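Hey Z.,

So I finally got round to the N-hydroxy-L-asparagine thing we talked about over coffee. Here's the setup:
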Amino acid sequence: VPLAQAVIATWDNRAAAEAAWNRLTAGEGALDAAEQGVWIPEADPSDTSVGLGGRPDRDGKVTLDACVMDHQHRCGAVAALQDILHPVSVARRVMEATPHVMLVGDGAREFALQQGFEPTDLLTDASRRAWEAWRETPEAQVRPPINVERRRPVSADDHDTIGLLALDRRARLAGACTTSGWGYKLPGRVGDSPIIGAGLYVDGSVGAATATGHGEEMIRIAAAHSVVEAMRFGLSPEAACQSAVERLARVTPSDTREIQAGFLALTPDGASGAWALQPGFVYVVTLPEGAPEPAGGIRAR
Ligand code: SD4
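And the result:
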């Protein structure tokens, strides 16, 4: 019996959640579903936080961070990877074809090319123009506006870094996280998204968690791992996310009004929840027909 298949994803990444859901209902495993779900924003030039069309670094280079993790503590990651359309798949390849967990920069790019990934220019005309305009502004090295400033109603074009968690019919959890990171970041900057335990963590018997927002804040508290540990000690997914957000707010040296952190969590029996520091955070949930309404999330089907 397909007990509790589920997909949850950060922001209104409806198309990604649907794609992952379709893989699950076709009988594929959670890791395939998570990987193929996040391919959608990676390939979408209008998504300025992920993959193709993602905002470049200060010098105009698009550098991508991504990771995957499955229910058996297998994991792979890439950071500061250039010229590859699907960094999530390179992360998976690191996991499956090397003895390592993480490759960065030129090494990651070389590995991807050796593995047959095609080099692709990820800087679109629109993102090049936006970067050129940014270079002319006086604030050309400040913190990017936090997501809370995006107060328009949730719509299909409301998207950002994607963390996606999937649960398949064999009750296996997996997750993927992929981003172009902080727009106009310092060259070499790596955020939380490719760091196992910060942007993503999966413990097949306890639960999975992923994060979005200012990655420096997530790294500080090993965010996704903190959420999973809170679930291990009995908190619900939502309460676990809330506890991690509260810890982050307590310990951060940053001004909490200027940062955003949003966490999502999913358990092996299909319970999900989320919490964020600032209002304006949304997430998308895809569940079987008849499943109870998720607290807070946007139901995609
Ligand atoms: C990062 N956490 O690189 C990512 C950015 C993000 O919504 O999640 N934006 O810090």
